[in-house]
Specification:
With 498 residues, this protein is an alpha/beta fold. The protein has 2 domains: 269 residues, Aldehyde Dehydrogenase, Chain A, domain 1; 186 residues, 3-Layer(aba) Sandwich (Aldehyde Dehydrogenase, Chain A, domain 2). The chain contains 16 helices and 23 strands. Helix content is 39%, strand content 22%.
């Protein structure tokens, strides 16, 4: 069994805390490696290294930093299959899905390479007699990212790419469930020309997270994970004067209007609900057909498509989706299915007890479908994070609109319709941060920002896009006056812009 490391100051560093976590191959259901869990001393070493690297990295002009980021992108592309294989083996998502995970991260780094333009300040000439004002966007210093298991390439690249482009040094604490890809990304960053220590990777659990939050030299913390932890990290970081950008859970709805193309809607639901075994913060987990006729027609289409889904090994090109990430995840998801039955929802398709030939110990949960779910049920209110789709029937458009608007979470939502007036009204009124019209998973492109509303986010700036640059920089405003030589004497009144 292999033993993984941390990556600090451009080198692989063995763990010294004496604590380790098992990293599983979820297809086999067996331990593939062990990852060290950092203590405060290892976190301090990573921050020491990042602090040293910050001086030289921030001194590079943004264009040179951008060139290094583009070289990093090139190296990631050269090693994409290697990275996707490692990602599939540790996470369980299919090989093609793993490549998409990497690509969506790379797109943000490509955007970040445009930092020379994005970091430009403002200038105002002669705001008062002989007085000019301009602004500078400057890096914060050493910043940290705490990223989840479900996107072990994309989200580290989202956070690190923007932060590094802005001139910060970055300490990454990835999920201990699938750490190999983040470690390899850090290696490739150094190979691309990034100074050692500019991007460090420290593996760990809550002890490492607490150490990062308590470390006074960490200026900002970015997090993606569950809502309770996002809220706790946001509060802890903010109380220590750090910037915090913390993204939590989701319960994404898809509204299906009577005029929608139901075959298109059913195909979209199948992919959005069951892709990556539902382990996506933007997965659609609630289908809301409007009207009984729509509901019955949609249900029959979903049942037909679910029957033809192929759950299988992650690296099998015929697999539609693979296993969930751990045995604990499988147990949690199956407990929600049991709760849905107990609460009176109709279990149309039961994914419990699913097996894949040749892999009896894998962490398999089959595609699951509930109908006649109500807004009072746990399977509607809570994030399941697995291949479970619930149908909540709405009598009319207004009832369908209220469901996502009134839900605790506000990450993503979609509406499928042919009617432009309905779509326009929906996008204006729904209380959710990311909206799709005939698009089931409305993840914005790299140069827009990603982020939800309500209990899905804590902090006032979103990920990537221009919000990302704002989060990882601070604004300095400079007011300049060049005296003409005439003596004016002391002034005791507030200066005015005139």
């Amino acid at each position: 069994m292999s033993e993984l490391t941390h990556y600090i100051d451009g080198e692989h560093v063995k763990g010294t805390s004496g604590r380790f976590a098992d990293v599983f191959n979820p297809v086999q259901g067996s331990v593939a490696s062990r990852v060290p869990l950092a203590g405060p001393e290892e976190v301090t070493a990573a921050v020491d290294s990042a602090q040293r690297a910050f001086a030289s990295w921030s001194a590079l002009n943004p264009q040179r930093r951008g060139r290094i980021l583009l070289k990093w992108v090139d190296l990631i592309g050269q090693h994409r299959d290697e990275l996707a294989t490692a990602l599939s083996n540790e996470h369980g998502k299919t090989f093609e899905d793993a490549k998409g995970d990497i690509q969506r991260g790379v797109e943000v780094v490509e955007f970040a390479a445009g930092a020379p333009h994005l970091l430009k300040g403002e200038f105002s000439h002669n705001v008062s007699s002989g007085v000019d004002v301009h602004t500078l966007r400057q890096p914060l210093g050493v910043v940290a990212g705490i990223t989840p298991f479900n996107f072990p390439a994309m989200i580290p690249l989202w956070k690190a790419g923007i932060a590094l482009a802005a001139g910060n040094a970055f300490v990454l604490k990835p999920s201990e469930r699938d750490p190999s890809v983040p470690l390899r990304l850090a290696e490739l960053a150094v190979e691309a020309g990034m100074p050692p220590g500019t991007l460090n990777v420290v593996n760990g659990d809550k002890e490492a997270v607490d150490a990062l939050i308590e470390e006074p030299r960490i200026q900002a913390v970015g997090f993606v994970g569950s809502t309770p932890i996002a809220q706790a990290i946001y509060s802890a970081a903010a109380s220590r004067g750090k910037r915090a950008q913390c993204f939590g859970g989701a319960k994404n709805h898809m509204i299906i209007m009577p005029d929608a193309d139901l075959d298109q809607a059913a195909d979209a639901l199948i992919g959005a609900a069951y892709g990556s075994a539902g382990e996506r913060c933007m997965a659609v987990s609630v289908a809301v057909p409007v009207g009984e006729a729509t509901a019955e027609a949609l249900r029959s289409r979903l049942e037909e498509r679910i029957a033809n889904l192929r759950m299988g090994p992650s690296l099998d090109p015929e697999s539609d989706f693979g296993p969930v990430v751990t045995a604990e995840a499988k147990q949690r998801i199956e407990s929600y299915i049991a709760a849905g039955e107990q609460e009176g929802a109709e279990l149309v398709v039961d994914g419990r007890g699913a097996q894949v030939e040749g892999h009896p110990q894998g962490f398999w949960v089959g595609a699951t479908l509930f109908d006649h779910v109500t807004s009072a049920m746990r399977i509607y209110r809570e994030e399941i994070f697995g291949p479970v789709l619930t149908m909540v029937r709405a009598a009319d458009y207004e009832e369908a609109l209220r469901l996502p608007t009134e839900h605790e979470y506000g990450n993503g939502v979609a509406i499928f319709t042919r009617d432009g007036d309905t779509a326009r009204d929906f996008t204006q009124r729904v209380e959710v941060g990311m909206v799709g019209v005939n698009v089931p998973i409305p993840v914005p492109i790299a140069y827009y920002t990603f982020g939800g509303w309500k209990a899905s986010v804590f902090g006032d700036l979103n990920q990537h896009g221009t919000d990302g640059l704002k989060f990882y920089t601070k604004t300095k405003t400079v007011t300049t006056r060049w005296p003409s030589g005439a003596k004016e004497g002391a002034s005791f009144v507030m200066p005015e812009g005139s």
